Amino acid sequence: MVKIAIEGLRISLGKHPALRGIDASLDGGTLIGIIGPNGAGKSTLARAILGLVKPEQGRVLIDEADASALPRATIARTIAHLPQGQTLHWPLDVERLVALGRLPHLAPFSHISGADQAAIDKAIALTDVEALRHRTATELSGGERARVLLARALAVEAPVLIADEPLASLDPGHQLEVMELLRAQAMGGTLVIAVLHDLTLAARFCDRILLLNKGEIAADGDPSDVLNAGNLATVYGVRAWLGQADGAPVVIPLSRNP
Ligand SMILES: Nc1ncnc2c1ncn2[C@@H]1O[C@H](COP(=O)(O)OP(=O)(O)OP(=O)(O)O)[C@@H](O)[C@H]1O
């Protein structure tokens, strides 16, 4: 299974130090939640793993190969990316949009194969967008669009899936459905990295949580260890009710720290 090693990663965006020395080892077959307040560096970390931002110091290794030296085509086949809050500009129908997920596998000017179509159909079924297959993607609701974009990422069938806020705009039923889907992908061997703001869903579904704060890892480990009153107060500045349901932590923010 795939293994990603992040070593001493420091990244500045303009003059702003967005990541200040991140070390982590991420293994296939796990669902890893990246949480933290706005501006903590979650998307920057996701983009750094994809080689979309250049480290000032440190490196990302994908199966021991330095990501910055890997050809873009190799990274596109290895890591599927669901970017944060993507807007669509082209009035493609949903099936064609999902088919774009197969581009990293296609030779120039070639047509999609039976295997490509099977991957597209599977992604459409998994994300519950079959009824939208022939709709124009730019005419979908926010939540429908989010599921279609997840389908495009799943169609890549990459060993790594990075989903940046995959639950944004989703209703509670579809939030659970997406988390179950990410979990199932991880159980099938994929390394799934999900940037999340819903702490209860992160705790319920993730194998491990990385809590980022001001560009550093404030905590890394089992969800029930990471989501404690001290971390919530220090990192998020909130007092929270912490409980248990179905054997998993439940976190309800109650008030901001006085
Ligand atoms: N292009 C840029 N130039 C300068 N600073 C940037 C740039 N992009 C992001 N930043 C800063 O880097 C920091 C980390 O941003 P990042 O988008 O990684 O945060 P995040 O944890 O994903 O936040 P959110 O939860 O709000 O999406 C923020 O302080 C942000 O303002």
Would you mind describing this structure in some detail?
With 258 residues, the chain is an alpha/beta fold. It has a single domain, classed as Rossmann fold (3-Layer(aba) Sandwich), CATH 3.40.50.300. It is built from 9 helices and 12 strands. It has helices at 42-49, 72-78, 94-99, 114-126, 142-155, 172-187, 199-205, 223-226, 229-236; strands at residues 3-13, 16-27, 31-35, 57-62, 65-66, 79-82, 160-164, 191-195, 208-213, 216-221, 238-245, 248-256. A 6-stranded mixed beta sheet has the order 6-7-8-3-9-10, with helices on both faces. Strands 2-1-4-5 form a 4-stranded antiparallel beta sheet, covered by helices on one side. It has a two-stranded antiparallel sheet with strand order 11-12. Helix 4 (114-126) runs antiparallel to helix 5. The chain is globular and about 60 Å long. The chain starts with a strand and ends with a strand. The structure holds adenosine-5'-triphosphate. Adenosine-5'-triphosphate binds at residues 13-14, 16, 18, 36, 38-44. Keywords: ATP-binding, Nucleotide-binding, Translocase, Transport. Residues 4-239 form the ABC transporter domain. Belongs to the ABC transporter superfamily.
